[in-house]
Amino acid sequence: MYLANNLIHIQPKLHFHIVSTTAPTITYNSRSSTCIPPINSPNFYRHSRTPYRDLSSPNLHFVICEEEEVMVFWIFGYGSLIWKPGFEYDEKVVGFIKDYKRVFDLACIDHMGTPENPARTLTLEQEEGAICWGVAYRVSGDPEKEEEIMAYLERRECEYDRKTLIDFYKEGAELEQPWLTGVLVFTSTPDKAICKYYLGPAPMKDMAHQIAVSSGPCGKNKNYLFQLEKALREIGHDDEYVIELANQVRKIVDWPKEETKITAPATLPVIKIRGVA
Hints:
Largest sheet: 8 strands, mixed
Number of helices: 4
Structural class: alpha+beta
Strand content: 25-35%
Helix content: 10-25%
Shape: globular
Number of strands: 14
Order of helices and strands: EEEEEEEEEEHEEHEEHH
């Protein structure tokens, strides 16, 4: 298995945990630095923009910057974060993660569905050899900024019970070695007894029917699917699974090929972060 069994629990009140194989490492622009995230953060890095001294040891990994300490936070988007992150970021990079694929196996009861009639939304399923394309966002600043963004993401991604640290491979870069490691992604436990929003797999026609008829405060489930199909095409990486499911939905609703853009929920406004233009 790609993921180790060491689960580091953080912020018990949020009921989240990090799944990681090693102490996360950031590798960016041919410079590498390592650190262990603080207890109240899933992915906090001190990244030096100036020469630094690495005081890491086998059990303690951190970087002391001679002139400047900057938090660097990376998150991978494989669903609506691709086209609407909802937060200010410094850099957006197209790429993929290995040994995961996207599946519509998670319930959504507050955005595109309701508790009585849940919609289907994306999560990741582990599969050896699979590739999932998406985008990684870089955010830098101070801990307060990271806190604000994480609060927004946890509210938006409330159906997911895991924060997982993964390797990220940049489009056009070396494919054998990850361009970044320790990138945060929201995932779910594939067990209904553990993750209450996990629906599990279903026949394609059944999923298509559920998506075709579901709607919630933020719009219709089918619009989310069509927008995902469009967003993946725009970054140059169609997903056959998404295309097949979208075509099944079109057969049910007689929907035109042009996708409809969904709106962000009114309760999740774009956060304007201090210090970001």
